């Protein structure tokens, strides 16, 4: 019959991968090269998050009962170490993102201070997003967050011909909910430019705080404030502004 059609799409499985500590050596499966020399300064080191090395230490500090509300504005909310390992593996399977462990070099033993991600990378258009940053309570209101963000920005935006070399991306994004005061301040402090507010852009898991309900739909949603640092901003004044913040403490 002319005009007849079918739709054979099958949605991907919703279940998480089985919990795993991964292979040895651990396969990051990331679309961009890792450049350790630009991911470190005298205060912090950003090193790829390897579950066998970092997962248990992360979970000790970041399980929901220890930090209530920690995951309110994130798309995931693990309730156990196994669930967190499954989430890490799901993101590892996506080559557009990588997760870094934040190590504080100013403290004895360089303890794990949190995590930060470079996600939603687009190698064709040279765009990436800095996201999923979690700093443990003992390291908040210190040099950790600003230096972790600054190192991630340098990694993304410095040219491949720089010393040390970066990725040479054209645009780095920071996306956050308007109600997430700390996240908005973090972007502003690092001289990112606010571009737009996208209404009802994120869908959160049922029961999460921080969102608004739609009658008849139990899943809360939030708006998104979009910040960006582009290469021309970075070269003209952004790198200098970020460096000043990183050097304050």
Question: What is the assigned CATH homologous superfamily of the domain at 36-169 and 237-246?
Answer: Gcn5-related N-acetyltransferase (GNAT)
Poorly predicted parts = none
Count of DSSP-assigned helices: 5
Strand composition percent: 25-35%
The biggest beta sheet reads: 8 strands, mixed
> Would you list the SSEs in sequence order as H and E?
EHHEEEHEHEEEH
InterPro entries: Acyl_CoA_acyltransferase (IPR016181), GNAT_dom (IPR000182), Ribosomal_N-acetyltransferase (IPR051908)
GO molecular function: protein N-terminal-serine acetyltransferase activity; protein-N-terminal-alanine acetyltransferase activity
Protein name: Acyl-CoA N-acyltransferase
Domain N-acetyltransferase: 71-229
Describe the structure.
- It contains five helices and eight strands.
- The N and C termini lie far apart (72 Å).
- The protein is globular.
- It has a domain at 36-169 and 237-246: 3-Layer(aba) Sandwich (Aminopeptidase).
- It is α+β, with helices and mostly antiparallel strands.
- The protein has helices at residues 51-62, 81-92, 144-157, 181-189, 231-246; strands at 44-48, 98-104, 112-122, 127-135, 171-176, 193-203, 212-214, 217-230.
- Helix 1 packs across helix 2 and helix 3 runs antiparallel to helix 5 (231-246).
- The mean pLDDT is 92.
- Strands 1, 2, 3, 4, 5, 6, 7 and 8 form an eight-stranded mixed β-sheet that branches.
């Amino acid at each position: 019959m002319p005009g007849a059609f079918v739709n054979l799409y099958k949605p991907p499985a919703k279940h998480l991968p089985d919990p795993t500590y991964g292979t040895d050596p651990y396969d990051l499966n990331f679309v961009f090269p890792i450049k350790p020399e630009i991911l470190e300064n005298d205060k912090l080191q950003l090193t790829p998050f390897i579950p066998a090395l970092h997962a248990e230490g992360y979970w000790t500090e970041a399980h929901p009962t220890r930090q209530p509300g920690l995951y309110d504005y994130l798309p995931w909310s693990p309730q156990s170490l196994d669930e967190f390992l499954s989430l890490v593996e799901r993101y590892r399977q996506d080559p557009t993102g990588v997760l870094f462990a934040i190590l504080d070099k100013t403290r004895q033993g360089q303890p794990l201070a949190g995590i930060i991600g470079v996600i939603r990378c687009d190698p064709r258009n040279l765009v990436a997003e800095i996201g999923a940053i979690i700093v443990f309570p003992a390291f908040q209101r210190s040099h950790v967050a600003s230096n972790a963000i600054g190192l991630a920005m340098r990694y993304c935006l410095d040219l491949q011909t720089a010393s040390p070399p970066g990725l040479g991306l054209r645009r780095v994004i920071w996306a956050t909910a308007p109600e997430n005061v700390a996240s908005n301040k973090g972007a502003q402090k690092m001289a990112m430019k606010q571009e737009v507010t996208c209404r009802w852009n994120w869908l959160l898991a049922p029961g999460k705080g921080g969102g608004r309900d739609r009658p008849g739909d139990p899943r809360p949603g939030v708006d998104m404030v979009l910040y960006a640092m582009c290469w021309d901003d970075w070269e003209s004044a952004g790198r200098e502004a970020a460096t000043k913040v990183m050097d304050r403490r």
